[in-house]
Design a protein that fits this description.
This protein has a two-stranded parallel ribbon with strand order 1-2. The chain is built from three helices and two strands, in the order E-E-H-H-H. The protein is mainly alpha-helical. The chain starts with a strand and ends with a helix. The chain has helices at residues 24-34, 48-53, 55-70; strands at 2-4, 16-18.
């Protein structure tokens, strides 16, 4: 299962859900329905240059989204 805010990529065998990782209610609804055994949070900024340029978005994507998933 994959979560996305935008258009889901074409990944064979992956069911996609539209969900904003910064929305605790939306994340809780998906987790409650999907009931995953584990979660891998792969959303985030990988480029240091881009992370610096878009620091607030980077913080939200890398830290706040992780916190939302953890709860």
């Amino acid at each position: 299962v994959g979560l996305t805010r935008g258009t889901p990529p074409a990944v064979p065998g992956v069911g996609w859900w539209r969900c904003d990782l910064l929305d605790p209610a939306a994340v809780a609804a998906v987790v409650s329905e999907v009931r995953p055994d584990w979660v891998a949070h792969l959303a985030g900024f990988a480029s240091p240059r881009e992370s610096k340029r878009r620091a607030v978005e980077c913080w939200a994507s890398n830290v706040l989204a992780t916190r939302t998933l953890y709860r």
